[in-house]
Amino acid sequence: MKLRLLSRLMAGTVGSVLLCTGLHAFAQESVARNGLRPSSLFAQLGVAEHGHEGTFGATWDLPWRHDFDCCVATGYVEAAIGRWSGNGDNASSVWFTQVGLTPVLRLQPRSWPQGLFAEAGIGANVIVPIYHSDNKHFSTAFNFGDHLAIGRQFGEDRKQEVALRLQHFSNAGIRHPNPGENFVQLRYGRRF
Question: In what helix (H) or strand (E) does residue 100 lie, and over which residues does it extend?
Answer without folding.
Answer: strand 95-109
